[in-house]
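Re: [help] complex structure
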Amino acid sequence: MHLQIDRLCKSFGYGAARKEVLREVSFAVHSGEFVALVGSSGSGKSTVMRLIAGLEQPSAGTISIDGRPVTAPGSDRGMVFQKYSLYPWLTAAQNVAFGMELQGRSRPEIRERTAYFLEVVGLADAARRLPRELSGGMQQRIAIARALAAEPQVLLLDEPFGALDIQIRESMQEFLRDLWQRTGLTALLITHDLEEALLLAGTVHILAPSPGRIVRSVSVDLDHSSMPHLRVSPSFLALREELAQNLRSLEPAFAR
Amino acid sequence: MPAFQRLIRHPWALGLLGILSVLLLWWITTASGSVNKLFLPSPQAVWLAGQQQWTSGLLLKDALASIQRVFIGFAMSAGLALPVGIAMGTSPVICRLLEPLMGLIRYMPAPAFIPLLIIYFGLDELPKVLLIFIGTFFFNTLMIMDAVKFVPRELVETARTLGGRTLPILTRVVAPFIAPQVLDTYRINMASAWNLVIVAELVAATEGLGKRISLAQRFLRTDEIFMGLIVIGLIGLLIDLGFRALMRRACSWAN
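Output below.
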């Protein structure tokens, strides 16, 4: 699998009200990779995600998967939104099964895969509970299970932990890293949290705001075997600080 | 005393107390003889009138006639409002096309259509059923449209990224999400339907609870008028409670 984003541009509105959100954004995600886009608000990072998901159309540039251009939403690109997007009238298991039912898979297959992915995200016990009976972290894990169960080629994560408390965020970051290692999924993460990007991704692209564009791309060559250690290791902190200064210098003067 | 407190805290206790107080006040007023009983019949007289109409079978016949009109007219209104409301809520083009028109007609009082309906359709069942339809369809449609507009974008977009097409999204995302609001819309507008059937029957009918009231007026039978009013109120209340029960059972996730 090869997700290629090529000179992607996006503007909203017309005439004098026209606002350029993205300017010539290019990057690639290969099978099994974990790539992160980091940017402050206004860097158009969510727009990049919506364009890749096919929920918006680019003004210029192309998005392709294995050479086929992306024109509409499809189950080859699974998306996890920041706000919990579970269906409140369906149980956790029914939510996980939802995408597979839309795909028209057979009942036994749906049942089997639902049980499997609930197990993968560690929520087999919560199968019959409604979303409102689950914590925020659990809801996001179900949303991830639902996206994975539909067998996407790439998982798009749009600030998936942005609405969670800090402690739950940290455990969710470890969960996601672990999930990536176990299942070999391909993931693209969007976040404003530099630490989160460096902890999870092998490649991090820094987006500058107004208009959004990639100003720096970093390969993260750190020892990811233990996340708690990584968080406080000197090389991790040095890289984080360097990139944080980079990000700060991109902010307009009044925001500094 | 704790038993009394438990009784008072029962959710229905105060409501029942309010009704009983009015009944008591009514009884005292009539028993004291200070009001002409032609204007205000006693509770016993109203009860007797009810008993009499029940044993003669008139009450049941009238109630069934009114209920049937409401049911047919409202079923037409609710059934058509659902697809039209969903279409308006999902398509900006359809919404811009129909919303001003519906907003205009909605403000025309339905009873003002009665003369026209009688000219067009005579005095049969059709004009009464149509009156209920006219009086509730536009409210039903616009309220369902609003419910559809409040479906969170993420829920629809999630379904699209999972490979969902338009029709499955309507039936499996939009429909279940709006179900509680739709039931509530029907519950609220059912009250208008119930009002309108009585208005229609007051104007022209051979049977029905409204007809009974207008006949009673002709013979100065205020006890029968009171009886009719109370029965109308009770049936309306029962329908309301029915909708609430349905909502609790069918949409437990929304409570």
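Chain A has a mean pLDDT of 90.
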